[in-house]
Fold these 3 entries.
Entry 1:
Amino acid sequence: ETGVTQTPRHLVMGMTNKKSLKCEQHLGHNAMYWYKQSAKKPLELMFVYSLEERVENNSVPSRFSPECPNSSHLFLHLHTLQPEDSALYLCASSQEAAHLYTDTQYFGPGTRLTVL
Amino acid sequence: DQQVKQNSPSLSVQEGRISILNCDYTNSMFDYFLWYKKYPAEGPTFLISISSIKDKNEDGRFTVFLNKSVKHLSLHIVPSQPGDSAVYFCAASGGSNYKLTFGKGTLLTVNP
């Protein structure tokens, strides 16, 4: 596979469930990102990892827990979510950790999450 | 407070004509601007960017214009093709805030 892949593509979960979103990039990049896109809202940056270290936590509630075990994989662990957390969750990667805002970000197709 | 605004949720254009997508920003610290295109069921893909030291950047059928005095940028697509039909996002970053700030997007429909 090439580019940035995300699994699952669709997820429905109850508020008491625990689930994880997975992102994998095959581009040899050093930085990875989680974004949230709610209905009729802009993409919002959630987390940034640079060389497997978290460099940004954009005031995200603790019910979202990211994990970056290596530069190719990024997870978003979900627990006790709320219905308002229903959204499209997008993963992205970019080449150089040192140029987080000038390097092009490559996005995965997203996971459509519904919290009941 | 939205720092990047795309005031037109949708735009419809005839094939072969020019498409003009607009974006306004409020943060004077922004110095790098990008356009992303998104097809349904796919992630956004990078289209074109411009640094604040320029006022125009061209790549094939796509040209981005930046007017810093009024904090406005636009994306011109000419000639428009049906395959250009997608949602177009404007994004900006700069200053101490390196994060990309996105607009809500504009749905472009190019009719054959």
Entry 2:
Amino acid sequence: DIQMTQSPSTLSASVGDRVTITCRASQSISRWLAWYQQKPGKAPKILIYKASTLQSGVPSRFSGSGSGTEFTLTINTLQPEDFATYYCQQYDFYPVTFGGGTKVEIK
Amino acid sequence: EVQLVESGGGLVQFGGSLRLSCVASEFAFSDFGMNWVRQAPGKGLEWISYISASSATIIYADSVRGRFTVSRHNAENSLYLEMSSLRGDDTAVYYCAPKGGSGYVGWLDPWGQGTLVTVSP
């Protein structure tokens, strides 16, 4: 199975900050990577697929980059509604696997 | 707007069985492969099963293979997960979500609101 490792596991930031979350795959997954946002008590919501394609309706302050084994999710100008947990997911092979999550907290 | 509504969760004893349902509306359910993903309390996301649009392809995670069975009824826009031999580590919120993209594997979007399964001694 492909292991997905996210870092950091927790990130403290302030409104207006630029934050970056990293996701590493245990083998190359080309660009078959998605990012999700999850708020407490809610289902995950997709932000980005194919490493850098923004899902319709997602604010442009979210961006993704990377290929192969290393990927990043960047949130420019962090907004109050962005405090949440973020997950990466590889979809190169079954079983689909997720990173362990990165919780973005208010500093 | 696409809606996915899971149901069937609840409290069940170790070794027991439960059947989850996911009903889709406002989207072409019969054209999409569907996934089940679960999330244990306070933990991350775990993919557990995929069924293709025609049910020709079914895949399970090792953690549930042989105990869980996924099926669908396209005429009723419904997806099912039959769970048996339930264990404590099956306690989780269970989500359904369609496969995004045209590849064999895809992203998951959108997600239902989830249904909680609690397995107790």
Entry 3:
Amino acid sequence: GAVVSQHPSRVICKSGTSVKIECRSLDFQATTMFWYRQFPKQSLMLMATSNEGSKATYEQGVEKDKFLINHASLTLSTLTVTSAHPEDSSFYICSARGQEEATNEKLFFGSGTQLSVL
Amino acid sequence: DQQVKQNSPSLSVQEGRISILNCDYTNSMFDYFLWYKKYPAEGPTFLISISSIKDKNEDGRFTVFLNKSAKHLSLHIVPSQPGDSAVYFCAARLGWGKLQFGAGTQVVVTP
């Protein structure tokens, strides 16, 4: 199956710093990437949808200035958590859908990034 | 507003027996339902899906049943194997590629 690489897998940072998470599709071109967030014992919550070359669409309640998403190429999307605070500590995971997909329900997921803000 | 619910956080089943995972949803506009499997420190991987116009889909040891009137779906794994021990997420699609997930069910298959 298709491979989505997410980096870093774990990051610890001080409050007030910014953290960038990368999501790459390794063997296909991802026209659309999704960013999810998961708190312990809870479901994956969609944060935003990004399409290559255009602005991301954020879900209700997600601060676009806080979570900057860039999808500059068909293989790379980045999520930057700006001025991180302890309440931003969470598991972040990306998923990607290729343009050749006959059906779109099979999203391919990255391995996730555990962010801990001290 | 949690539109997809998995009310059982965990399930323990003996190897060789059937595992039944349940999922309830509230939005009748969902058009596709999916099950994902997740191991620790890895991303979810697609397992099986079902269209809202079907009531059953089978793939090897995995069968998904959909009851639209009850807004309920279930995943049956038979026979259960030790490698099936993982967290299983139910997801529902609303719009192109956007999924809503349940909280997951931790399955433990015991020898």
